[in-house]
């Protein structure tokens, strides 16, 4: 089945991410839940809450037994949560009722599902942080290599003043450095065990609840939140927010590349291009388009997650289900956006001649601001601005280059290198190199 | 794989909809695309654009041959669109190059994918309209049966004045009647063929383009839009808007039911309830929660679709891909919400005694507005309102019923049936019956 | 105050719309509410529900008296709804307690606020429909004038095959024609009176409720919905959906224009351009940017409105308040987007020479598809496609025009006008003219 | 004007926040921009970029002169940015062309607008952090006071097992503690100067750009980002994400309170209640509804901000304008939600008797889980669960309390205090107190 292209065989190499995808299979979900049940039993055995021999049996079985996901469907369709039928199937499979009765002792479905989810989110974060680092480094290399390569800076799609390609690359990478910090900050808040019992009090575990939670956390390598958090959804919301911000930043990179490779611009060439079913000449910027599409999709789903923070009482079915529908796709979108960006980055080849052509189409209008500042040394600045504005209009009407008109009007002036891009790069090269350095230092 | 619970075996009976789900499988997508290619060839053969014998061969093959979806993955990963590899695989499978060369003649990927999508949307709409009608009728029956059953009307969660349960049911059903009209209006706009060629001009079909489109439309039982619409996304946006509105209306029904079945209220009993993994007494309103969750999910995805109407130039990869990620889920969400509502409706059992208890908790405060109007016949209305407001405060302090206090203060007044729900139902029964009648007339 | 730029003096000429803006002032809100109270009293007087002399007094006062909006703030801050304090202030101002006591008889705040809102929405719709029609006609003129003007069709930002500028304009206008139909369909559903009483039963009006509603509707020139709809939010949702779709369609026009006027492209010139504080040469496409920004903003707010259809019980404070925060801005965004598009449309000047240059940068690659179809007459089509693909690569490597390579490889072939845009326009001119005709027929 | 209720006189005490509102007036915007221009000139004077005497004159004038916001409207309507006309008006007002010519030297509009915005965001953050702290402390007091007060824990709206009211309050407060950490983390990223020049290179400032930025930052008490960030929108996105998460968490508190004060529940009384225009008895939970409405509104607008991170090239008009439309409202929504919560918190009065009644409606079903664990000591747990499930059904059929049935079936068992809430609170009191302690430690 493939209601989502993330789950489709056809679109497997376009949207799916194998590494993260395998964390969000039915099998992986069952596996992770059993792992939590096993670790829970072990902790409860150690604390004397259930017989240690049973704890050991449950723990071992949780690692060894297979439970068929499809077999859980019918009861899950009724209870919404798959845990009741999973526990039932697990107990049956154990064939040791004297031990299996102690499985899922004093826990509720959300404890198991949520902790099992956090286990997989840990891997998602690890994978994504690594991809983020790889991407930052690739962009660092690119920024360094082209720190001094002039290109037209564009605002509102209009040529503004020169920048360097390396600086533009740095503008893609700088937010990623900050996202990396954000990811580290959230990790501690997000990667913790959830163990609350029926309504948040762990009452069925007597006075051992907090100790069970602590040992469970330790066994699973997660943090102990020190309290129930089943109805506090800020952890999930924070992860979703960050995924949205990261895919958004990658979307900007995708958008910029889509514009740079436009026919007529061709200021960048990409190693990969997509073909058309009818146009032999086409090489479509598929990967940049994916970055933009995923940014939009994740942002849409983020709205679902943020809305679900308004979570009622001790458990809100509707709000929780909404998270189920959105969160795995958000993880997948994030992971795929990062992998797509990593496929793209090493193949980004700027075309200096095309960039040079775009900077100066012969009119030299891109130097208008620079000229106005040069003239401001000989006349009040508002006058200089007005004079240059008039010249710009003359350029547009007559096609005569701005430099020629300037020479005509101020024959005694020496504008030096003013009408060359290299003279106008300002902080661009330094910013490109500073980013490269930060990237390399990771 | 199951990044989306819509695609999961575990959650199959919770979120998945078998009937609509089978329209959004990889196989169904391939099948629909081949169907379009076949019908296109037939139309082109009839118009002499390609040899008729080849057209017949292609058409026949399109019905008979199987193409493995997974085999399209690699090239789709590069081109984004699966059509180039599908056409290649189809031609190979035909084993008749002299004919197969005429397959996909002058069309572009979007023509095939989009028309194939419309074919499936037609079925989605047919299924959903039928479910909508069934649901309206079920609600009509319920509204009719309980047209006179008094219950507490609640605003801001506070008891306001009496309504009837039948009227509340009518308030769920009335928007559905309007949605049914909307669905019929959009059908004509949405269910049309898309045939544009490479960039919208059908230039490769000489002067036969419009005729091909007309015949293709006729062959597929779709409307002929009379023009290219590949970059005009209002059709998709309208479908998504309607799905959002319908799931929203069903969400309200879900929310109202969730509140009515609250422990302590129990004004309604549902035939189905979900169990807990640890609390034996629980019977959770799973279906109502699903309605609310789907309403939220669809609304989030609708934002993606609406954003994609800002579709650049003659084809915008990013905007189009964003639709792929969201639209099938929207259809599925709509279909599942309707089926869940249809599972729910016949099992909704109002509890008259509980409703009566909620109307009057002994204080009779719900009759405050009615009393104020009765008193307004003997004194200026602002005075009456102030007098009743003072009485209400006395009720809240002392617990003495409002009726007793009224009798005390206006011993000569005959308030008749004022303090009975039946006297306060106003238009409620009539509205319930009017809806029932409209529902039955479908 | 100006938390929203829609309300700011600085941004008045950028985002604000004077005509619609004056419908959403505090004064206009108070005025519309008083108008409803007056019409309600009149209807109730005619039906004998309140003394006719009082009804006349209330009606007259509702037209003549002023109530200071600021004076309602304190009580509104407590009750959320401004009606209690408005009624109080109105009664005081009437200085005729014997009559004023019958004001707001049996109605609830939502009746007054919602009907007052519908009155203003009627004007919003009238204004917007007129603007829509004006815009469609302006686009029709443009499409007609440039029906045959060739320009490069672009998919994924890459030159695809030729289209005509008139056809592109038609692709902006065609959705607007459909939106006009949608607006007419929704008008009947949306423009109706809301009169429900405290919880939807009009019980305080005895058996006269429906008649009062009918007369109120007639007096205000609105439709009589025939039932209470205070908790059925599909009407508001439909209006919001349509506003979202329209601004989305205008956003596409804005996006296309932003790309067409890009420095380096300059295929279109706009009459208006925005200046920079530092760059004398800049002429930024401000109006197209506004179209895109409003499309995004309205789409974001639409999510709020759609979410609010999940409206609890007989009145849901939170859901209703959420509508207040979003709906006026949606109306304003729609109105401003239409006015901005109307400012833009007459000043859109395509530049044929720039368009010609973009079609053929000297390589003739845009004719690749056409060549492949021409060759398919002499060899199997897959072979032709492969041959042309190879030539395209040679073009890209050597810079030799495709036409020259074709002449070299098939010296005997007569490709006629194949390598000219006029030969490749297909249905474009006809589509442009068909749209122009439809526009003129409005 | 009042397109947004945030800007309305009528809704001033409902939605508006005076303290934050005054940061988002036209006057405040002009003032902040002038402040930045003044500080910029001062920095440039100190570095010899402009004459020091002129710098001093500009700086002084920036503090003293008034510029009428309305006077900027016309040109802002054309250029979109108000800075060109502001600089013009400022220069005119200075009446010293020899000095004023050096105002806005080498800066672009975005530098001024964005830094001026950051100055106001600093105040927003300071105000909100203080409110957050106040709120956390108020909740801490409440949690402490009611740490042991039993109430029914509810999942899916169904009574689950007992919790304590103090623990529920802690569940509102715990996310706020984390939000406070998040706010501190983002402060350093967000509160920095933006100075980029025309397209990001500060080229007009020669080699002094970075020094000017550093001194400007110091003068304004903001951080120096060390690079241009005009096209990197993650800072704005992070602020919006956090505002969304905070209002979402407050929305949960609002939702829980709305449910707790429901007629029929009345487990909490609020100090404030909103009246109705027709129902004398009503006391609506207005403040909780506001919390929920603001959560939804901010979440909708957050989608606009997140979408705007896909910001094109060196400046993207559409993306930037979209931020203008959404960000101030997000700040206002956050501030108002916090003030509303602070109005609410001290007046939250739990009603122990009503809570006790809800825990046990006489059936004792809430103790079902506890009974199953007690029985699991005498029989295998699955058997115990099944036995209790059967008893629950008997309770529901016959109305006999669970305790009686348990005593009947296991006459020899001593269930002790099992059927009392106090015995079932588990970790609830400790969690409430731990939160209170953390709150007090702030």
What is the count of DSSP helices of chain A, taking H or I runs of 4+ residues? 17
For the termini of chain A, the CA-CA separation is 41 Å
- Count of domain modules of chain A: 3
Within CATH, the superfamily of the largest domain in chain A carries the name Fumarase/aspartase (Central domain)
Percent of residues of chain A in beta strands?
under 5%
Count of individual beta strands of chain A: 4
Q: What would you report as the Rg of chain A, rounded to the nearest angstrom?
A: 29 Å
Which sequence of SSEs, written as H and E, runs from N to C of chain A?
Answer: HHHHHHHEEHHHEHHEHHHHH
Q: What oligomeric state is this? A: homotetramer
Tell me what the structure shows.
4 copies of one chain form a homotetramer. Chain A has helices at 18-21, 26-46, 52-64, 73-79, 83-94, 97-100, 109-145, 165-190, 209-220, 234-260, 286-307, 317-344, 352-359, 368-375, 381-398, 402-409, 428-440, and strands at 150-155, 158-164, 268-269, 349-350. Chain A has 442 residues and is mainly alpha-helical. The first copy, chain A, has 3 domains: 17-107 and 205-227, Fumarase C, Chain B, domain 1 (Orthogonal Bundle), CATH 1.10.275.10; 109-192 and 229-359 and 427-442, Fumarase/aspartase (Central domain) (Fumarase C, Chain A, domain 2, Up-down Bundle); 360-426, Ribonucleotide Reductase Protein R1, domain 1 (Orthogonal Bundle). In chain A, the strands form 2 sheets. Chain A has a two-stranded antiparallel ribbon with strand order 1-2. A two-stranded antiparallel ribbon of chain A has the order 3-4. In chain A, a hairpin with a 2-residue loop joins β1 (150-155) and β2 (158-164). The longest helix of chain A is centred in the first third of the chain and has 37 residues, at 109-145. The first copy, chain A, is elongated, with a radius of gyration of 29 Å. Chains in contact: A-B, A-C, A-D, B-C, B-D, C-D. Chains A and D meet through β1, β2, α8, α10 and α11 of A and β1, β2, α8, α10 and α11 of D.
